[in-house]
Write a structure and sequence with these properties.
In chain A, about 75% of the residues lie in helices and about 0% in strands. Chain A contains 13 helices and no strands. By secondary structure, chain B is mostly helical. Chain B has 16 helices and two strands. Classes of the chains: A mainly alpha (about 280), B mainly alpha (about 325). Chains A and B meet through helix 1, helix 3, helix 4, helix 5 and helix 6 of A and helix 2, helix 3, helix 5, helix 6 and helix 7 of B.
Chain lengths: ~280, ~325
């Protein structure tokens, strides 16, 4: 009895240690961000006079206003289209069981393992031929394609488990496939769709290599993560400012995550295991 | 197959009889392709087509501007003979230990010990916290860790004593240093960032997996007099085959395609000690303008990922069928 209590206690201690280890980078960024600009803080140390205005300075210096807007536009351009076309494809593969569906699914699954570096070079020349380099479209269009493997896979997994009798019943009432999709299936798929939207929003926000290569000079048209890379290049020796800027860029997605943590964690785990 | 479906299509509304319905379902199996097309088009245009072009470029010598010259397999020859390029691939192998093996093994140990703790109220908060690295941009993680691992960083500050003791034992010199700037420790330093990124994901995934194991299995083995260690190897480990497979797959892809963290924290330095294929591809193609060589390395990377993933998937799925 006492040994099992000791195990439980030990488990709790370990959990706290693991939480501290996970939070360490954030705590360290936070204390560094409050030090006077131009000084060299040491590890975890609370400054004598916390410089809260560093966050405002970082916002201005990194020009975060336009970049926040740019990131929002990229998310708005990417996520809705991704979700709609992936839901349609998932419906076709999971409910309508189209001819050749297995082969198509296999084709999408290949994309799940593909590293972005494997296609980034031709993507540059492709978008260059469309005259889209240095525009937000250069991030939006490839991202939609890159999100397809996971998104289609995710939506298919939902539609496979919806009984086909539902579609057949609506059909015998004279509904067209299009009507069945929007009227019956999409409302039922809402939880899966919301999870997908949250995951793709976070992935879009954090995308780095794509904006780095496809939006090489026009930093104000990048995603937040892409802009952070440029900011780091400029202010790498100004730790307080860099730390403040990093925290500002992190904050929106951390808030999204905290609000939707249940859906996000469940979706990441399910998506991974089913894959 | 597609033909027979379209020829037997009937006007809508004729589906009131069972036979008519079946015909309609068959018609759906063809018409469904219209629902599939937008996704396939996006995927084809921005993933499959570039992938095919990567293969094509890899056979050419091209600076991105002037006409390309066919060079056959010589770019691939260079990938495996050029010391810098080859060592980038070797570094990926070392990063797999940090990104994959360590988080999976540590995750297993932590999950086994924390299973009861994580079920409680503390566990709900803990899950949200330890999953956080999955939400944070790797770029930001790279910036934070560059600072943590710096000379004045928190790692030196907090862990000075244990690090000092271990290094003295191994005869590896001074304890306080800028880890990512060190010839010996930069790559393990990048690896440590990988551990941080992946550990929470693996731990939570494995904990959830352990929660699904039938408790009667443990009861039965306890009746047989099995201790906790034997239980772990006889019951826990085999039951978690799928979850372990997922951990290894996800983390290996992350290790092999590492870019953001390295770009931000070390830029491949010092002296190429942390150069990885992802960064090398970027530099070759967009700084050195050696598009063909960069593409060959890109294709090697793609193949490498497949070679690492397929055995794991095979092992996981084999168990499901038997």
């Amino acid at each position: 009895m006492s040994s099992s209590r000791a195990t439980a206690y030990g488990g709790r201690v370990m959990l706290v240690v693991l939480m501290f280890w996970t939070l360490l980078p954030f705590i360290s960024l936070f204390t560094a961000a409050l030090h006077p600009v131009g000084t060299f803080p040491t590890g975890l140390s609370w400054p004598v006079h916390p410089q809260w205005q560093n966050f405002i300075n970082a916002w201005n210096v990194a020009n975060l206003g336009p970049i926040l807007k740019s990131s929002a536009l990229i998310v708005l351009g990417t996520v809705p289209i991704t979700v709609v076309i992936a839901t349609m494809a998932g419906f076709a593969l999971g409910q309508l069981r189209v001819f050749g569906g297995r082969a198509v699914m296999l084709l999408f699954l290949i994309g799940l393992t593909l590293p972005l570096e494997g296609i980034i070079i031709p993507l540059y020349y492709e978008l260059n031929s469309f005259n889209l380099i240095d525009t937000r479209m250069a991030v939006i269009l490839p991202l939609i394609g890159l999100f397809m493997p996971f998104s289609v896979y995710w939506m298919r997994a939902h539609f496979v488990n919806v009984p086909t009798s539902l579609t057949e019943a609506a059909r015998s009432d004279g509904a067209t496939t299009w009507q069945i999709f929007w009227g019956v299936q999409v409302p039922l798929a809402r939880p899966a769709i919301i999870s997908l939207a949250i995951i793709t929003t976070i992935w879009t926000w954090n995308q780095f290599l794509l904006p780095l290569v496809l939006v090489p000079t026009n930093v104000d048209s990048r995603t937040m993560a892409g802009a952070l890379g440029a900011f780091q290049g400029q202010y790498s020796d100004n730790i307080p400012l860099l730390a403040a800027g990093s925290l500002l860029i992190l904050a929106p997605m951390v808030i999204v995550y905290i609000v939707f943590q249940r859906q996000f964690i469940r979706a990441m785990l399910q998506g991974a295991v089913k894959g | 197959m597609l033909n027979s479906a379209t020829t037997s299509r009937r006007p809508l509304g004729a589906g009131s009889t069972l036979g008519g319905l079946r015909t309609l379902v068959r018609a759906d199996r063809a018409r469904g392709w219209l629902f599939l097309l937008p996704a396939l088009a996006a995927y084809g245009m921005f993933v499959l087509w570039p992938l095919a072009n990567s293969v094509k470029y890899s056979f050419y010598n091209w600076d991105g501007i002037n006409p390309a010259k066919w060079v056959g397999l010589s770019n691939y020859g260079q990938v495996f003979t050029n010391a810098t390029l080859y060592s980038a691939i070797e570094h990926s192998g070392i990063l797999i230990i940090f990104f994959s093996f360590l988080p999976t093994a540590l995750g297993l140990a932590l999950a086994a010990f924390m299973r009861s703790a994580i079920a409680g109220r503390l566990g709900t908060v803990a899950r949200v916290v330890i999953f956080l690295p999955q939400v944070v941009a790797l770029v930001a993680a790279g910036i934070a860790w560059s600072w943590l691992l710096g000379y004045n960083g928190a790692i030196n500050q907090i862990f000075y004593a244990p690090i000092d003791a271990v290094l003295k034992l191994l005869g590896l010199g001074a304890a306080k240093q800028a880890w990512l700037g060190s010839f010996q420790f930069a790559l393990p330093g990048v690896g440590l960032i990988g551990v941080w990124v992946m550990l929470g994901f693996c731990t939570v995934l494995l904990t959830v997996g352990m929660g699904k194991i039938d408790p009667s299995l443990y009861e039965a083995s306890q009746l047989d007099g099995a201790g906790p260690v034997r239980e772990f190897f006889d019951i826990t480990l085999p039951s978690l085959r799928q979850e372990i497979g997922v951990c290894l797959t996800v983390t290996m892809i992350a290790a092999l395609s590492a870019f953001d963290i390295v770009y931000i924290s070390t830029q491949g330095g010092p002296a190429n000690q942390t150069m990885v294929p992802g960064l090398e591809i970027y530099l070759l193609a967009f700084t050195n303008r050696e598009v063909g060589l960069a593409s060959a390395l890109a294709i090697v990377l793609v193949v490498l990922v497949v070679v690492c993933i397929v055995p794991i998937q095979w092992y996981v799925n084999r168990g499901n069928e038997s």
